[in-house]
Design goal:
Elements lengths: L1 E5 L9 H16 L3 E7 L10 E4 L1 E5 L4 E4 L3 H10 L3 E4 L7 H9 L3 E6 L3 H6 L5 H18 L2 E4 L12 E3 L20 E4 L8 H10 L6 E4 L5 H11 L5 E4 L5 H10 L2 E4 L8 H8 L4 E4 L3 H6 L3 E4 L4 H13 L4 H10 L2 H14 L3
Parallel strand pairs: 1-2, 1-6, 2-3, 6-7, 7-8, 8-9, 10-11, 10-13, 11-12, 13-14, 14-15
Antiparallel strand pairs: 4-5
Helix pairs in contact: 2-3, 6-7, 6-11, 9-12
Length: 355
């Protein structure tokens, strides 16, 4: 089976979509279970037989490496060349009806992947959130209505408007395992994009309300970096805050997770939350919103909080800081969430779809 993943948000420095796609590429090459191609906005038009096809685009967010494609002509041409059996569209914004039609004429089943909800995307846009969410939801519904199925880790609700839904599964890299060699520090750690919709400002507010002035470490970059530093100064916690660059190496990231007192995923609108799963599998205590699927997957290794409640977020952080590690539970969690099993199940779902 020839599977093509089309992804708009394929940043050079992180992101759950890139993590998923890179793991999928490795699995396809290692097992030969399917032929895999990735189509993304890039700097060059790939034509060298590579399994990653970079199409003409312009830079969008330089710090994260995100780019805007120069229309859909090159995407359509690439799909005609590849003649896939299944096309997975990882966002609704590079998936016009013309793209879906080309994929179908090439003989492909078309699957839309629900990575970000209309509520999450609207939270990133300045202005009235209700207006933005209405526009984005309408766009998502039109895209999902064209697809044969929607892959989603959570119920997409009104964003999908009755579309056939299949489970989107995630795994973790083998590097994320408890090692027992990292000394547990006193700091609270956040890893991810520095953006308003990720709950970073609520995390700063929680830190400012803490009676114990624990250190806060943010690892990553993003559009809100300057605003984060300004908010920390106004809250009087700039001396407790450390902002560090994105960590690409999986082993180094696993050690960073394990060295934290706890790892916090403060976003209230996560449609999965891979950071929480990686951190918990590395042996760290985790804090996540109770609605995040990753919080459910982490089980007793996670302390949860109610979305939008800063005091509850702080209480969850304090509970996680005080809780002991459980390396046995972390090891079992890592074993249950291997990428290979996730992709084998996904392939079976794709093969079962009518064509």
């Amino acid at each position: 089976m020839r599977v093509v993943d089309v992804a708009l948000f394929y940043g050079e420095r992180g992101g759950g979509i890139r993590t998923y796609l890179e793991a999928k590429r490795r699995h396809a090459r290692r097992t030969g279970a399917f032929e895999h191609h990735v189509v993304v906005p890039g700097r060059v038009r790939a034509g060298d037989g590579s399994d990653v096809h970079e199409l003409p685009s312009w830079p969008l967010l330089r710090k994260n490496g995100y780019r805007v494609p120069a229309g859909t002509r090159a995407l359509k041409a690439t799909l005609r060349e590849l003649r896939p059996d299944a096309v997975l569209l990882h966002d609704p914004f590079w998936a016009s009806r013309g793209v879906v039609d080309v994929a179908r004429r090439a003989g492909a089943t078309v699957v839309a992947v629900h990575h970000g909800s209309s509520a999450l995307d609207a939270a990133a846009i300045p202005g009235p959130r209700a207006v933005s969410q209405t526009v984005i939801r309408g766009w998502m519904r039109r895209t999902y209505a064209q697809a044969d199925a929607v892959l989603a880790a959570v119920d997409p609700g009104n964003d999908a408007a009755g579309a056939r839904t299949l489970p989107l599964r995630f795994g973790i890299d083998p590097a994320f395992r408890p090692r027992g060699e990292e000394t547990r520090g006193d700091h609270v750690l956040y890893v991810g994009r520095l953006a308003r919709e990720k709950g970073v400002f609520e995390l700063l507010d929680a830190a400012a309300r803490a009676e114990d002035p624990w250190p806060l470490v943010l690892v990553g970059t993003g559009p809100a970096e300057r605003a984060v530093l300004g908010r920390a100064r106004r809250l009087g916690i700039e001396q407790r805050l450390s902002v560090r660059p994105y960590v690409a190496d999986r082993d180094a990231l696993a050690r960073a997770y394990a060295a934290a007192r706890c790892v916090v995923m403060p976003g209230p609108l996560e449609t999965f939350g891979l950071v929480a799963l990686e951190a918990a599998a590395s042996g760290a205590r985790v804090v996540a919103c109770e609605d995040a699927p990753a919080a459910v997957a982490c089980g007793a290794l996670a302390n949860v909080f109610t979305a939008g409640d800063v005091d509850d977020l702080l209480a969850a952080i304090e509970a996680a800081r005080a809780a002991p590690r459980d390396p046995m539970a972390a090891a079992l969690l890592a074993r249950r969430h291997e990428w290979g099993a996730a992709f084998d199940a996904e392939l079976a779902e794709l093969e079962a779809l009518p064509r």
